[in-house]
Amino acid sequence: MFLKILEQMKKHHLLHHNDKILADRGYYNYENYEIGLKKYHIQPLILTKSNSNIEKLNNALTSPLEYFRQNKKDKENKSKFIKLQTHFEKHNQKKKN
Questions:
Q1: d(CA 36, CA 50)
Q2: pLDDT at res. 63
Q3: Nearby residues of 70 by Cβ (< 8 Å), 6 or more positions away
Q4: pTM of the model
């Protein structure tokens, strides 16, 4: 469903590079983050579920060849991931408090 929404937004020129998309917990899926970052070059901000794991998301987004090829897109994706990681941490801190 998330992919179909992004496709429609792109088709109608509503989606641009580095846009931030806020979605509720129903769209929480590691694959949705990967699609948003790698295919559409956006920053998906999806509210986390209680059983979310930042390490699993990191493993899904990190390429094993990252150490051998550091091009501009890889660096941009890594910086987007760092922003997502801080979002996760802030959100999880709010839940604990």
A1: 21
A2: 61
A3: none
A4: 0.53
**H helical segments located in the chain:** 2-11, 30-34, 54-61, 72-96
Predicted confidence at residue 12, as pLDDT, reads 92
Q: How far is CA 56 from CA 4, 12, 39, 60, in A?
A: 24, 33, 19, 6
Q: Is 79 exposed, middle or buried (0-12, 13-18, 19+ CB in 10 A)?
A: exposed
- The Cα 67–Cα 7 span in angstroms is 31
Please give the C-alpha separations between residue 78 and each of 17, 49, 52, 59, in angstroms, as whole numbers: 15, 23, 19, 12
Q: Is 42 in a helix, a strand, or coil?
A: coil
Rg (CA), the chain: 14
